[in-house]
Amino acid sequence: MTISIREYEDISKITDRFEDDEITPILLGLFGEAGSVMTSVKKLKRESTAFIGFENSVIDELGDTFWYFAALVRRLDFSMEELLGKVVTDGPNSRGFQPTDDPARPFASVRETNVEACDMADALLRLGETTTALFKAAEVGEAIQESDLLGFLGAYFQVVASAEISFNRVLTSNAEKIKDRFVPPVLEDMPDFDASFPEPEQLPREFAIEMRERENGKVYLRWRGVFIGDPLTDNIREEDWFRYHDVIHFAHAAILHWSPTIRSLLKQKRKSRPDFDEGEDGGRGTVVEEGLAAWVFSKAKDLDYFDGHDKISIDILKGIKDFVRGYEVESCPASLWEKALIEGYAVFRQVRDNKGGIIIGDRTKRTIEYRPLED
């Protein structure tokens, strides 16, 4: 598929949370992302084939860099299309058409930039210089000129050309990323992974799980009056309340409609479809979820278990998406994962503070809540 500059600008504007008159944070972001591009290339030089995913990493960083540039151009009241028009030329190839993957737009006209590929080190140095020039102009109170913006664009496209990366891939990838991360999900449109399966194979639409810590320090789960799973301890020398982490699995089940761990606990695997029984609900899927929960828990520990947070770090969300690649839950947007973690850890903290509680999950509403134990 392709995306036009105007379409990209519309998407990026929706996700721009800075004030209209804020320039310095935008320039700092641009400076940081340009530096991240250089870091990715440095890793390639240093680690060669050991740096897996180099191309995707550079595409990601170039996309974030262009997002900040678009935000800057918007605040300076320049036209992005006019600026881009000044770094392209009407060469012989510009008269042709490029086929696209978009049925509604089968062709895109080809334009050539005025820049050519060069030694990558030289391209990166120029990108750093032109980014610094933008920052210095604002720092001394001078107005950023069109020539400054064009200088940056020229350097930017020189990096794109030298890395042999499609600019369309940069834009479409970044557009998908920011929609995935920042646009709130329409819950009714989110996937329900077991809706087509018999009810006994579905995760329960509503559930109330009792979690109680006993005098021996172990945590027990009970559902419908029956104990489920094994009693848990922290399994670490310094107490960190990991024994309550099943709350997070219940948040996955209620909000994401996904949890191989909970399916196993409640004996609700999708056995009518062998491919789902093995490829989604089997041992590896459970290990992936347990590993993911432990990894996120290690991050949450350093952030007071997300107490007072209404956002989750993009780095954590990106790590999650990498973790679950290849499984059905990868179709859930980052914003839905964020909801699951924020709400899940809110219940976790209440369970921790009260040494137990009732975890209330509602898959229809995609919510998880806490209720005190009934002694």
- Broad shape: elongated
Write down the oligomeric state. single chain
Main beta sheet: 5 strands, antiparallel
- Runs in which pLDDT lies below 50 for 5 or more consecutive residues are none
Rg computed from alpha carbons, rounded to a whole number of angstroms? 25 Å
Per DSSP, the total helix count is 13
Mean pLDDT: 88
What are the defining features of this structure?
50% helix, two-stranded antiparallel ribbon, 375 residues, five-stranded antiparallel sheet, alpha+beta, 13% strand
Question: How would you characterize the overall build of this protein?
Answer:
- By secondary structure, the chain is α+β, with helices and mostly antiparallel strands.
- It is built from 13 helices and 9 strands.
- The strands form 3 sheets. A 5-stranded antiparallel sheet has the order 7-6-5-8-9. A two-stranded antiparallel ribbon has the order 1-4.
- β8 and β9 form a beta hairpin.
- α2 runs antiparallel to α3, α3 crosses α7 and α5 packs antiparallel against α6.
- It is elongated, with a radius of gyration of 25 Å.
- The protein starts with a helix and ends with a strand.
Per-chain topology:
Elements: H1 5-14, H2 24-47, H3 54-75, H4 80-85, E1 88-89, E2 97-102, E3 105-109, E4 112-113, H5 120-139, H6 146-162, H7 167-182, E5 206-213, E6 219-223, E7 226-232, H8 246-256, H9 260-266, H10 274-279, H11 283-301, H12 314-323, H13 334-354, E8 356-362, E9 367-371
Antiparallel strand pairs: 1-4, 2-3, 5-6, 5-8, 6-7, 8-9
Helix pairs in contact: 1-7, 2-3, 2-5, 3-7, 5-6, 8-13
